[in-house]
Amino acid sequence: MSNRPWNFSAGPSVLPVEVLQTAAQEMLDWHGSGMSVMEMSHRGKQFMQICSEAEADLRSLLGLSDEFAVLFTTGGAIGQNAIVPLNLMGRNGAGKADYIVSGSWSKKSWQEAQRYGDAQVAASSGQAVELDGQACEAWTWFPDPATWNVRADAAYLHYCSNETIGGVEFADWPDMAQLGKGDVPVVVDASSNILSRPMDYSRIGMAYAGAQKNAGPAGVTLVVVRRDLLGHALPICPSAFDYAQVAQAGSMYNTPPTYAIYVAGLVFRWLREQGGVAAIEQRNIAKSKLLYDFIDQSGFYVNRVHSRFRSRMNVPFQLVDESLTDAFLKQAGEAQLLQLKGHKSVGGMRASIYNALPLQAVQALVDFMRDFEKRHG
Ligand SMILES: *Cc1c(COP(=O)(O)O)cnc(C)c1O
Q1: Residue nearest to atom 5 of ligand 1 (CA)
Q2: 283 CB near ligand 1 (under 6 Å)
Q3: Is the CB of 80 under 6 A from ligand 1?
Q4: What's the domain range around 352?
Q5: How does pLDDT run across 70-86, given as a tens digit for each residue?
Q6: Count of CB atoms situated within 10 Å of the CB of 43
Q7: What is the pLDDT of residues 122-147, one digit of tens each?
Q8: What is each CA distance from 260 to 65, 78, 210, 271, 333, in whole angstroms?
Q9: Where, per the database record, does this protein carry N6-(pyridoxal phosphate)lysine (predicted)?
């Protein structure tokens, strides 16, 4: 596999090579069935086994209690921006939902929710502030939970635990009871940091993630939702996206994305073999530290995210002399370091360093950055 380039794509993104090898071996004949998983009935014994093992592994990795339902669904995280309010906005009759807006993705979630009810911003990082004595530009920090203006009768509070574009991660999920808002369930868009570090799911009501960042191929959307939140869907909610109906049918209300669930299941098994989420967190700390430390000691590259909120998964960085960006990206591509172009809204570069990307890849990137600086600095 030495001819594989290092893939820093934000999503769809790199998968563990062992997972790809298993999928290749099993492509024509899954476990003596004589069939590809793609060809199996979703209601047959074999696929039911694949799906229930994937669910059991995901539950174990996330540390989910039986209070939660796990749904393998479709429509992506952007679909969930509508599906969440369709399911939860009617929960208590007030038709209100509060949003923390901390970057592009959570802003999109808030905007979509306005189509279904009274969706308000409870806190935003859209202005420059000074934090811990550091000056922070807009969208480079995360609002302190003590400042969140959450309405007592909000049907839910939504935040994004990792802004994939801005590179801002919020990992200290607060205990809402301690904030005096224990009745407001929390909804988390965890698309780009799910399974990257231990998280306390007992503090939230639900989380969702498109699989293609850190959990598998595009096509399956992971939803974990506390069962007491089921059964409040608005009448206009499509049945296929009504969490209660999907949970009742064990994610088989309609045909689920069977092959994507199978590959996600291989990723979950791989993660368990690596020692689970706590072990992968240690690698993610080492990888992100290597890159941030290099950027910080250099006067040539810069990452502007407040140190407490720097994402371990997505590292945006700029050249101080931005006129060198095109040359950087071109030469990085020639060095087999791919997909480093930053999102168009922030420019510069972005290295997405998800679970499946080894330390060796980040080392190769840092070596290249050092060399580029020598030649152009
Ligand atoms: C990628 C991403 C999305 C959009 O996901 P889709 O699967 O394309 O709908 C939403 N939120 C976050 C945090 C993301 O990283």
Answers
A1: 77
A2: no
A3: no
A4: 276-376
A5: 999 999 999 999 999 99
A6: 9
A7: 999 999 999 999 999 999 999 999 99
A8: 24, 18, 11, 16, 29
A9: 213
> Does some domain include residue 14?
no
Dihedral, CA of residue 272, residue 276, residue 277 and residue 283, to nearest 10: -110
Q: How far is the CA of 163 from the centre of ligand 1 (A)?
A: 9
Q: Cβ distance 35 to 234 under 8 Å?
A: no
Binding site membership of 103 for ligand 1 (Cβ less than 6 Å)? no
- Say if 360 falls within a structural domain: yes
* The last residue of a domain, from among 230, 248, 273: 273
Domain at 185, CATH number: 3.40.640.10
Residue where a domain stops, chosen among 273, 299, 320: 273
Specify the DSSP class assigned to residue 342: P
> Would 206 be classed as within a structural domain?
yes
**Which atom of ligand 1 lies at the shortest distance from residue 160's CA?**
13
Model pTM greater than 0.85? Answer: yes
Ligand 1: atom nearest CA of 78 is: 9
Tell me the chain's radius of gyration from C-alpha atoms: 21
Count of the separate structural domains present in the chain: 2
Both tokens of residue 174?
A: 């607060």
What are the angstrom distances between the C-alpha of 232 and each of 59, 117, 278?
A: 24, 14, 35
* Minimal-distance CA residue to ligand 1 atom 7: 76
Q: Are residues 108 and 30 in the same domain?
A: yes
